[in-house]
Structures are given as structure tokens and as C-alpha cells.
User: What shape does this take?
Amino acid sequence: MDRRKFLEIGAAGAFAMAASPLGAMTPGAEILPDDECLGIKFLGTGAAGGRKDGKGRRHSSILVEDAFIIDFTDNGIDMLPEKHPNTIFYTHSHKDHFQPSAALGIGIKTVYLSATWYDVAVKAFKEAANAAGAEMPLIIPTHFGVPVQVERIRVTPLAANHPTENFMEESQIYLIEKGGVRLLYATDTSGIPGKSARVAEIDAHKEGRGITALIMEATMADGDDFRLYCHSSTGTVENTVRVLMKTGRLKMAPGQKVWLTHMASSLHPADVNAGLPENIRAAEDGMEVIFTAP
Assistant: This one.
């Protein structure tokens, strides 16, 4: 995706926004220097049970400017711009996030994922490539806390609290940094694990830079749901945001929102935003947001 499309609004309306999504620029707004903002497009905002028969939210996935994608399945194809990056990061191996055939279908050439399931991923991609007669992508193992540089964006893999069927696999969340923007993208995970909070510099036991933006999963609305061992609820996100802001670990630009993703339609009311604080809102499929430094 052309970065300029994240930095200015054309007459045709470059952005498909939900009602006044703060953090996104509006017509007539000042165009910011490229290194002072980070553009995100939500290709999907749903959990595993979504997007059946063309209904519901697509599987959770984001496009980060024209640099890379995080997670992708074939039900997000219609959300991709015609020109898109050929690099992808995966959070974990569950099928609503990891679908090698879909990645090959959109021309992915470089894949980043945790070294803890590298062999599993290579085998899955080889099978998909052979079936499609496609070229095998370069698969690069990542390690907890060791950043990867993609163009002008720094991506640091962190541990998620989300087990898979592979006992040795460590699911990941990501700290995404560009200029003064420090975005924590946290899906799928039950809260933020302590060691990840420490590396992201949001651990209250230690001084740090904190973060300036947060996208966090809210699979369920009810905090008493049995999924609490591997997922977050809207209440989990509310508590996380409240603590981060109270301790100065989350410093958002004026009007910025924390965005919810990975929502299971069957576990939320029709209006996900009902009862939520004004600074926390549900993202929608296709929404584009610009995060700026405070």
C-alpha cells in the first residue's frame, strides 16, 4: 500500500472509517511527516468462528503500511489493496491466523514466525507450495525480544499467553515501532505476559518508555468465560488500559483510541462499544487508522 494514502485523504475518500475513528486523519487535516505516524489497515477483526457464508467479521489480520501483513487467511482477500507487501509475520499456527495457501495466493515471499514452530511452518508451506505449483517463500525464524527491521519499521516479537496444539510453540504478540510511535499489537493472548510487558517497557516495576498505541484482542465480552486462560475480554482490555494510563505507560496522542480486535460475534452484544470507555472502541474490517506520537 502506498504510504501517501495513509498520510492524506483524496477527494475520492482514501479511508473507509467507522464513525470518527480517532487516530485517523480527517479531510482538511494537516499532513504529517512520514516518520511521525504509522498507518494500519484492519483486514479482519474477528475470531475463529467468523466470516461464514460471507457474514460476520473476517479473521483477525492487519496491513502495516506498505511494509508487511500480520496473519492472513483467504477470507481477508477482498480487504487487500491491489498493491500489497509480500512480507508476512505470523502470531501462531491456529488456522484462523495461519493459512499457507492464502499467503502463497497473494504472493508472499518472506515469512517471519517464532522459531518454536519453524519446522511445523516449513512443512505446511512446502505442502501448500507443492499443491499450488508455487515457489517456496523464505521462512525466517524469530526469537523473543529480538527485533526485526522491515524498511523503516522495527518489529519486536513478544510472548503471548495463548497455547496451541503444539506444546513447544510460543504464540507471539508484536511491538511495532516507527519514529515516535510504539504500537503494541496483542492478539491472541490472555492479558499481557510479564516478560513481554518488561521488553515492551510497560512493566510498572521498571522505568521505561511505555507505548503510544494499543490494539488488543477482546475475544469475549464476559470476563468469566472459560476462554480466559488463552484470550482476553473487553474487561481485560479496560483494566489493562486503565493501569497503563494511570502509571503513564500508555501515552496516546490527543483523541487517539485503543482498538479492539479478534472479537467473536457470538460472545458480544450487537453494539460492542456499548458500555465501553470512550477511549476504547471496536475496530471494523477495512478500517484504516493512523497512529501518531503524543
Notes: The first helix runs from residue 4 to 7. The CA atoms of residues 191 and 239 lie 10 Å apart.
